[in-house]
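Example 9 (inverse folding). The structure is encoded as follows.
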């Protein structure tokens, strides 16, 4: 029975196991990245924020600069994510999570099967209340995914070091925002008929706050959805599924203006027929730069380039079947 349970977990998520003990988790932030921080008025110990975009297969590291706002430090191409656009709901669905997560020091894994990793903390409070299931959903190395985000060993090594230093510097946890795509009017219009559109519209509220203010949105849960930057009578809502308590504050007028502008732009795209059809995935995506390498050199060569232990590429045929490109 124990073996069956272990196999079920392996099939449902990207599981962390001990490979060996070395210094990979204590490697310093690369000097060139420290120099970039200095150029952008950031310190290695300053707080970070992570944004993930499935369709674009990109992960962004943002860091608080001396102005007190977050600025983009670096964008990493993602080698592999699995499933389709949309949230993860159950074990074995191969879905990489979408939502807002908070990663503390105890969620960093220096002994991951996939070089280094950190746990997203799925299911979060909202997902658990909705009955969603799954565990060990990670951002990790290599180019293999069964519900995780794979960034290559080199990429996750940098991300891990930056996150470690921010947490050592006093940040209790860093926020990870995982989106199906960059939440532009064009992408929202393309996906207007998707069953997940209402959920994505909620995510866009948090996306817009960060886009306009460059500060981390406060995350609450009520009415079975995310609610951002609200203070409530009696404190935080006690029930995730019950009606939201009366709010004590209004939204930021600049954010409201941005949201209104985006709604008008989306409506215009739909009314003029300018919105293209939504993109479909065979099983997850891969950044075009890695797809070109896979197409040109094959899966064995790509595995060697993305993993020190040559972890096989997950479902390479599905990755090649995905026709998405940034110019689409």
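The amino acid assigned to each position is listed next.
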């Amino acid at each position: 029975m124990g073996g069956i349970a272990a196999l079920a977990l392996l099939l449902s998520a990207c599981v962390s196991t001990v490979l060996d003990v070395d210094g990979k988790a204590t490697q310093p932030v690369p000097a060139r990245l420290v120099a970039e921080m200095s150029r952008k008025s950031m310190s290695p110990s300053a707080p970070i924020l992570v944004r993930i975009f499935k369709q674009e297969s990109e992960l962004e590291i943002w860091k608080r600069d001396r102005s007190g706002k977050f600025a983009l430090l670096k964008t990493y191409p993602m080698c592999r994510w699995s499933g389709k656009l949309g949230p993860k709901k159950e074990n074995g669905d191969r879905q990489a999570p979408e939502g807002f997560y908070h990663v503390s020091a105890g969620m960093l894994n220096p002994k991951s099967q996939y070089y280094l990793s950190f746990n997203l903390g799925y299911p979060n409070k909202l997902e658990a209340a909705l009955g969603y299931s799954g565990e060990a959903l990670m951002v990790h190395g290599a180019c293999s995914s069964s519900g995780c985000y794979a960034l290559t060993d080199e990429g996750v090594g940098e991300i891990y070091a930056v996150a470690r230093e921010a947490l050592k510097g006093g940040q209790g946890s860093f926020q990870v925002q995982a989106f199906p795509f960059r939440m532009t009017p064009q992408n929202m219009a393309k996906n207007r008929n998707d069953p997940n559109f209402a959920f994505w519209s909620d995510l866009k509220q948090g996306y817009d706050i960060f886009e306009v203010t460059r500060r981390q949105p406060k995350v609450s849960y009520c009415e079975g959805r995310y609610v951002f930057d609200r203070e409530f009578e009696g404190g935080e809502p006690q029930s995730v599924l019950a009606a939201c308590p009366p709010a004590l504050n209004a939204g930021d007028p600049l954010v409201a203006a941005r949201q209104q502008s985006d709604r008008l732009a989306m409506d215009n795209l739909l009314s003029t027929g300018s919105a293209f059809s939504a993109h479909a995935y065979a099983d997850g995506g891969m950044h075009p730069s890695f797809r070109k390498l896979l197409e040109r050199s094959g899966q064995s060569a790509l595995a060697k380039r993305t993993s020190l232990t040559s972890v096989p590429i997950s479902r390479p045929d599905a990755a090649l079947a995905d026709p998405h490109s940034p110019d689409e």
